[in-house]
């Protein structure tokens, strides 16, 4: 059984550790493999670190940040510290069901597996909050489909992207792509963009319907920002993702579509968050160009020329003739 490094980003999450961590800790320590638990504190103002030191002491590694910077940077610090075969990203507002990991190990018998995620359901009910997604293109906008799973539980289910809340990934591959893109700080869309990079390097992301965890929705980001700021960050990161993974005429048409369908209506209706998000995006074009060029070099080193349209077609072919259950 492959060893696991667990990376848990935390921001003011003492109440979440009190509610959920003990269950997860027991499940992790019951695994018949080497487990490393790394908690990265994103400059919390509560007593999260003191609580962890008191109750878990030397059984966990705690990395303390002096400045709050967001999810991507926080996770990347933990990823850098990880030493085991697999890395499991775990949010503080998630509790695992028994047998979660045992259902995921089979995926790493395949050489091209980047990672796998399980089914996320509500904390108080069994409503599905996250499952497999397939990509589609509307105009030039890349959109994830509604949730789905495959009726045949023995069939491997591809997913467009892994949820950063409960993703189990190959450490070597995750470090090879340098983890999350920190331009996506403080949050939103970083897991989708990272998964797209993995697909474009020829690796695969999977979903396992029988591995289950529960999630307290938005508990780990609650109170971070007002609703306007959250929307502005969300759309800025959407623009980032498209710019990084579209090319040529597709990229030009995408920006035209955004101006016509997002920016102008945002101004006309006085709902300025999309227009401001697009300005935020434009102000960071130089850094985006650096990131895009670096990934192009990495693809060349991997002898890959897979584009986003190839990823979409690949997933479509993997689902062909399968009994897809839409949620």
TrEMBL record:
Presence of keyword Glycosyltransferase: yes
Entry's family note: Belongs to the glycosyltransferase 2 family.
Keyword terms, alphabetized: Glycosyltransferase, Transferase
Lineage: Bacteria, Pseudomonadati, Bacteroidota, Cytophagia, Cytophagales
Organism: Dyadobacter fanqingshengii
Glycosyltransferase 2-like domain segment(s): 5-174
PANTHER family: GALACTOFURANOSYLTRANSFERASE GLFT2, RHAMNOSYLTRANSFERASE WBBL
Pfam families: Glycos_transf_2
Gene Ontology MF annotations: glycosyltransferase activity
Protein name: Glycosyltransferase family 2 protein
């Amino acid at each position: 059984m492959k060893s696991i490094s667990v990376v848990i980003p935390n921001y003011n999450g003492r109440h979440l550790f009190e509610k959920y961590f003990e269950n997860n800790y027991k499940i992790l320590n019951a695994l018949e493999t080497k487990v490393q638990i790394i908690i990265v504190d994103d400059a919390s103002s509560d007593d999260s670190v003191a609580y962890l030191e008191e109750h878990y002491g030397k059984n966990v590694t705690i990395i303390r940040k002096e400045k709050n910077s967001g999810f991507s940077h926080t996770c990347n610090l933990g990823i850098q510290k990880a030493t085991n075969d697999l890395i499991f990203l775990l949010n503080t507002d998630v509790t695992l069901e028994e047998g979660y990991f045992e259902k995921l190990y089979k995926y790493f018998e395949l050489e091209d597996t980047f990672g796998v995620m399980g089914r996320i359901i509500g904390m108080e009910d069994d409503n599905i909050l996250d499952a497999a997604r397939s990509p589609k293109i509307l105009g030039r906008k890349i959109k994830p489909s509604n949730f789905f799973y495959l009726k045949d539980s023995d069939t491997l289910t591809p997913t467009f992207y892994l949820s950063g809340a409960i993703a189990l990934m190959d450490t070597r591959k995750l470090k090879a792509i340098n983890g999350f893109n920190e331009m996506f700080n403080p949050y939103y869309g970083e897991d989708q963009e990272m998964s797209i990079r993995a697909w474009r390097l020829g690796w695969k992301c999977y979903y396992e319907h029988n591995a289950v965890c529960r999630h307290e929705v938005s508990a780990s980001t609650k109170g971070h920002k007002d609703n306007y700021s959250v929307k502005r960050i969300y759309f800025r990161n959407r623009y980032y993702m498209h710019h990084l993974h579209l090319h040529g005429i597709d990229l030009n048409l995408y920006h035209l579509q955004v101006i016509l369908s997002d920016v102008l209506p945002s101004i006309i209706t006085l709902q300025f968050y999309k227009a401001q998000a697009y300005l935020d995006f434009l102000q960071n074009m130089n850094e985006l160009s650096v990131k895009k060029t670096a990934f192009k070099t990495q693809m060349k080193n991997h002898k890959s020329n897979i584009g986003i349209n190839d990823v979409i077609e690949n997933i479509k072919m993997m689902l062909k003739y399968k009994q897809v259950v839409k949620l």
